[in-house]
Specification:
It is built from 6 helices and no strands. The protein folds into 2 domains: 91 residues, no CATH class; 43 residues. The longest helix has 27 residues. It is mainly α. The N and C termini lie far apart (59 Å). Keywords: Membrane, Transmembrane, Transmembrane helix.
């Protein structure tokens, strides 16, 4: 199935969007609503990127919302999906040790982000605190 084909679940949404787009005011209102909602979701995702969790997934969800009405967002979303799929396929073809190393690097990155977030937000050095509490 290509990106242009629709699944049965998408058809009612696209049919409804097409009905709204038929009027000039409906089209403009839809464009504004999708633009505001998509931008808000992307902004939330960007705020959440440094923290462990779904920050990037939320950014992609916001881009998917924008892709409903904006051609540039649709092209960017399609490109991003394609690159993410290529990356995941590449990882799946690697030996399990390479996958473990990639996962470990991801965990180290997340640990560093948590440390930096706590240090910047609360002025607490987690390494010092853990050492102190362990009695070292």
């Amino acid at each position: 199935m290509t990106d242009e084909e629709e699944t049965p679940r998408q058809r009612p949404l696209h049919a409804w969007l097409d009905r709204v787009r038929r009027t000039r005011s409906g089209s403009l209102t839809l464009k504004i609503a999708v633009g505001v909602l998509g931008t808000a979701v992307i902004a939330l995702g960007i705020v959440l990127i440094p923290f462990p969790g779904p920050g990037w997934a939320i950014v992609l969800a916001g881009l998917a919302i924008l892709a409903l009405e904006f051609h540039w967002a649709h092209r960017l979303f399609t490109f991003t999906k394609r690159q993410l799929t290529r990356w995941l396929d590449w990882i799946k073809r690697r030996h399990w040790t390479v996958r473990v190393l990639i996962g470990a690097a991801g965990l180290v990155f997340v640990a560093c982000v948590i440390w930096a977030s706590v240090y910047v937000s609360f002025d607490v050095n987690l390494w010092t605190e853990i050492s102190r509490r362990l009695g070292h």
